[in-house]
Design goal:
- It contains 11 helices and no strands.
- It has about 210 residues and is mainly alpha-helical.
- Helix 4 runs antiparallel to helix 5 and helix 10 (about 180-190) runs antiparallel to helix 11 (about 195-205).
- The mean pLDDT is about 95.
Length: about 210
Amino acid sequence: GDFYHLYQTGRTLANLRYFKEAQNYLEQTASAWDGQGEPPPEVNPSLWSHSLILLSHVTTKLGKFDQAQEALFALCRARPTYGPGRSHLGRFFYEAGNYVDAAKQFSKALAWGCGDKDWGADPAKNAFIAASMLAKSLENTGELQKASAAWRTAVSLNPQHPEPYVALAESYMAGGDKVHAKEFLERAIALAPAHRRAKNLYGALEVS
């Protein structure tokens, strides 16, 4: 019944893909605090938060989508400005095809921070993922200018990743700006010479 050991057991089982068994331990971890007031002394708020994120993950894998959503809702109710919770809720909405609400959650995550060192959520890496997912969400809602701005944020967070450059190149191509499109594709190819989509787009520009 020890909180820390329940959490670590649930986390380990989830990593091993024993999702049904993991659910049992993670539900016990999550129930160690009702999310109201201050948590009990034995409950680490970061690990409690991660247990709800993991609970959402394993119940999604088990096809229990209502439970998966409620785990993230419970986390956001208890810790409304906790960025990793917002980011994971955004991913849940994105995978469900709800791009409007996904974009809102990714924006909140970026505003409040996406990391938590207590359970290993790297701030820079997770901010890059949130910015990229925000851009994809906005593309799906047709807000292309905002999507381009989000891709630029992703570039600033990780200038060594080729994907934002490719996305920006596609945006410029759609607008008929071949010069800037070519510039961004060259950056992407310099970073990832085998990037097939970047090479195909660059070839299309050369032909045109």
